[in-house]
Amino acid sequence: MHAKLAVLSTVVSLAGSAYAWGAEGHQAVGFVADSLIKPETKAVRDFLLPSGWNFTRSSTWADEIKSNPTYKWSSNLHFIDSHDVTPLDANATHPVECTVDLARDGDNGVNVVDAIGNYTLRAADAAKYNWESRSEAVKFLSHFVGDITQPLHACGKLLGGNQFFTTWEGNQTYVFNGRVSRFQLHVLWDVYIPQKDVTENFGGSWAAYQQFLLDNIERGEWAKEKDTWLQCNPTTSPSGNPDQCPLDWATDSNEFNCGAVWDKALLAGTGTSTANDLAGEYYQKTYQIVRKQIAKGGYRLAKFMDIILAGQPASNSTTTPVATTTQPATGTSIATTTPPTQVTSCSTTSTIFVTVDPTETATPSYPKPTTLPTPIISAASPLNAVSSILFAVVAAAGVAIL
Q1: Roughly how many angstroms between the first and final C-alpha of the chain, as a whole number?
Q2: 204 phi and psi, to 5 degrees?
Q3: 230 with 394: CB under 8 angstroms?
Q4: By the 8 A CB rule, do 364 and 106 touch?
Q5: Going along 66-134, which residue ranges are E strands?
Q6: pLDDT in tens, 106-118
Q7: CA–CA distance from 2 to each of 54, 102, 120, 308, 370 (Å)?
Q8: Any idea what DSSP says for residue 337?
Q9: Please, what are the domains in the chain?
Q10: What is the pTM of this model?
């Protein structure tokens, strides 16, 4: 994990890290999911999300609220910082190696893998959690399942590529919200690679791009392999490890950091920058990876929601859940009696202010306690429900569990 910095304010978030995959990329994930979920899932989705929303709309919410002080703690849930030996780092002593190790890289639960596990439990349990808590969980999940497919959101090198600088289409800088920034590798993957693909191959139409992804999942080049995107490998049983499926998804994304993402020849330079224009050969080697990763996010989200929302009420008249909120009331501050945890992220440098949920000690809750308990996975743990749900996703798809 990057070194912890004692800072009390958020450093300006870069354009690429503000919207992983870009807003349009996340909306493509949501569109695919909206198109593939079952009718009964749509009914529950419509009940849990604000009026007129769908996953296409909710997919960007988790990025939009990061600037809201009430949700400041959520900024570091969008990624996991793996410790990799990329092609830029490898030598005779240390060969290329890319892995995601939750114990090593997970920052005590503050990461996208644990966030998916946490919000899965909340979204799935209509008896325990009220509408507000489950609605929030579904909104987070519709974003995080997309985030976890972006290779640089499963990467700890140079702040997930935010500190690797390059040139794009002859330019070394770009303007975002009136601010001039240097091109980072991260922003290319989030925004510029998919945007160039849309411009050159889809007439500038994101709607055409979205439909292309959906068509290829349903009956095109990905139709036969799509169910492999759901595979996970529980270490003991369906209730063995609540983080196994999102961990496998992060691992799938992380593997690209040992190949195309950190291509040694195309990124040759100082080690933190290259003079090469990545809109040429680098783009040609990566844009189809981006397509498929976005498609994976949409397909996984659809199957995921079909399982966790199955059998849930689609109106207020059918349930009286226990009131459980994950956020303080509007106008109140999130505070602790001890200094807050500070985390330097792949995306930003920010302070996480956290509170304690004494009812959930088996895994971190969000907002999180300042001193985190060691996660406990046992037969008695209610969080085993998470892994049962995740296991059911792949079982329902008819996928062989490895």
Answers
A1: 29
A2: 80, 10
A3: yes
A4: no
A5: none
A6: 999 999 999 999 9
A7: 35, 15, 27, 34, 19
A8: S
A9: 15-59+77-336+384-396 (1.10.575.10)
A10: 0.78
